[in-house]
């Protein structure tokens, strides 16, 4: 729709405004908001309803005394006092978008930091090409690799490659947002919005588990809250604790879905001169004391499907084993452990665990980190974002790749993937609360900022006529409820610090 058509449509109703912040073009009556809730009709003017968020650098304060979004009350209103441009960072949260793409970014803010003139291009991106990578700290089997992950019955992603001590999900993405049914797209969008805004989401995995996940919280798997992340695989657990078991045990088997460890066969046991036990476990032997596929994946011992650890013992060699042999079986988290002694028939009989052995089992648990869910938002910063910064978008891409321009999301540091384009990934826990919105196309709306020296911005062909000092931006935006000030998260690097590679 051309500007002339848009003006004509706006004038079609005396009190109706048409929102041009996304392709939906909502017609909004007075006192109402559009479909996304982000824009509304205030006195016959289109207004961004959420407050505009500035982050204030807290100097000379203890990190423990500066809780994020807590100073002066969480989400406190700006009182109109002057702010030094070097001490305040304008985030994209509440800034608005560049749609329909040809416009400069909503705010291009100048500041002076450590004697260097800096520019920050501030906007909210409408991300159709975006997804969520979820890391779930657990040994428990959640589902087969590539299995569908569902929300409200709709496929919203899949199980991807497991990592050390964690199961991984790939959720969202343009194919689920736009390539399926309307319901699939809407459910996918809402799921991503909730996860990115640090809310809990219920998921099911085909052929696998039921989950409730939330950024920064322990995952709930089949109704049970996970507590521990593994200390290591079965082989690593043997290596870590072998010395502490010598003299107290004759054999240790660490049950693990991936690599089950057997102490006396393992190099650690050999180096400690431990006598062979004659106990052979099921599965495929990889190297001495390391076994693959001792059982099927599951939610039992060590991420396997077993509840009886003796079921993985294939045989006991009577030529090597002896009555009274002391056997510890334990999982990679120490959550499961049992003590056995061989009787006269060389059959394992469960017995009370000696205190010295229990101490080491407890130490396994002590060395396990708390199980958490990590949510990383991933998106491609495409044409509209880059056009909001410069008339020649490829120059912004090159500037980012050359580390002359810093990319942040709501002020949080963003990892920029190598290769073409500007593909970013950011931990949502590093971002302010409720940093994300949506448009009903459907797509996720998220903050993004590009910060660089003023000279670099001019060289890449930036919209120099739109550059404004912070005090001008604040005056134009207004005071009170339309601007919100928060203290900076101390763990994050200050985004306005001059870039050393740029020579400033």
Characterise this structure.
The protein has 504 residues and is α+β, with helices and mostly antiparallel strands. The chain contains ten helices and 35 strands. The strands form seven sheets. Strands 17-16-15-14-11-12-13-10-27-31-30 form an eleven-stranded antiparallel β-sheet. Strands 8, 9, 28, 29, 32, 33 and 34 form a seven-stranded mixed β-sheet that branches. 45% of the residues are buried. The two termini are 43 Å apart.
Short description:
The chain is α+β, with helices and mostly antiparallel strands and 504 residues long.
Question: Key features?
Answer:
single chain; 504 residues; alpha+beta; 11-stranded antiparallel β-sheet; 7-stranded mixed β-sheet
Q: Kindly report the spatial arrangement of strands forming the biggest sheet.
A: 17-16-15-14-11-12-13-10-27-31-30
Structural classification: alpha+beta
Shape: elongated
Largest sheet: 11 strands, antiparallel
Helical proportion, percent range? 10-25%
Output the number of helix runs: 10
Percentage beta strand: 25-35%
Overall mean confidence score, pLDDT: 89
β-strand number: 35
> Radius of gyration in whole Å, from Cα?
29 Å
Question: What are the low-pLDDT stretches, counting only 5+ consecutive residues below 50?
Answer: 4-12, 60-78
Distance from first to last alpha carbon: 43 Å
């Amino acid at each position: 729709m051309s500007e002339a058509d848009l003006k004509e449509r706006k004038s079609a109703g005396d009190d109706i405004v048409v929102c041009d912040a996304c392709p939906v073009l909502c017609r909004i009556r007075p006192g109402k908001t559009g479909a996304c809730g982000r824009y509304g009709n205030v006195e016959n003017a289109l207004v961004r309803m959420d407050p505009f968020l500035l982050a204030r650098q807290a100097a000379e304060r203890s990190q423990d005394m500066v809780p994020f979004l807590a100073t002066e009350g969480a989400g406190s209103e700006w009182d109109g006092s002057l702010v030094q441009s070097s001490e305040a960072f304008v985030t994209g949260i509440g800034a608005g978008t560049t749609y329909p793409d040809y416009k400069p970014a909503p705010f291009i803010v100048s500041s002076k930091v450590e004697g260097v003139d800096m520019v920050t291009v501030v906007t909210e991106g409408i991300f159709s090409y975006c997804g969520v990578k979820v890391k779930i700290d657990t040994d428990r089997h959640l589902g087969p690799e590539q299995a569908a992950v569902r929300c409200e019955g709709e496929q919203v992603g899949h199980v991807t490659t497991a990592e050390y001590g964690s199961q991984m999900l790939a959720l969202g993405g343009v194919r689920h947002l736009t390539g399926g049914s309307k319901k699939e797209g809407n459910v996918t969008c809402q799921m991503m919005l909730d996860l990115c805004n640090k809310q809990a989401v219920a998921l099911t995995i085909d052929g696998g588990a039921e989950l409730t996940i939330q950024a920064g919280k322990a995952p709930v798997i089949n109704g049970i809250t996970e507590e521990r992340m593994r200390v290591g695989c079965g082989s690593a657990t043997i290596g870590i604790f072998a010395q502490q078991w010598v003299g107290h045990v004759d054999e240790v088997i660490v049950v693990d879905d991936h690599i089950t460890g057997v102490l006396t066969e393992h190099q650690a046991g050999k180096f400690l001169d431990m006598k062979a036990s004659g106990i052979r476990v099921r599965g495929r032997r990889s190297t001495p004391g390391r076994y693959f596929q001792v059982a099927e994946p599951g939610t039992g011992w060590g991420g396997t499907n077993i509840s009886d650890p003796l079921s993985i013992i294939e045989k006991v060699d009577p030529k090597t084993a002896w009555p009274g042999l002391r056997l510890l079986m334990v999982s990679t988290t120490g959550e499961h452990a049992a003590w056995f002694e061989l009787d006269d028939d060389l059959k394992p009989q469960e017995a009370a665990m000696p205190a010295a052995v229990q101490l080491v089992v407890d130490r396994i648990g002590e060395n396990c980190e708390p199980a958490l869910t990590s949510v990383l938002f991933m998106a491609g910063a495409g044409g509209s974002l880059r056009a909001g910064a410069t008339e020649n978008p490829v120059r912004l891409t090159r500037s980012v790749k050359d580390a002359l321009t810093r990319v942040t999301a709501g002020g949080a540091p963003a990892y920029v993937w190598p290769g073409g384009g500007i593909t970013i990934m950011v931990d949502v826990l590093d971002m302010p609360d409720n940093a994300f919105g949506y448009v009903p196309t459907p797509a996720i709306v998220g903050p993004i900022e590009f910060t660089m020296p003023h000279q670099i911005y001019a060289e890449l062909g930036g919209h120099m006529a739109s550059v404004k000092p912070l005090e001008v931006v604040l005056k134009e935006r207004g005071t009170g409820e339309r601007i919100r000030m928060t203290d900076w998260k101390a763990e994050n690097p200050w985004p306005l610090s001059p870039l050393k590679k740029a020579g400033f």
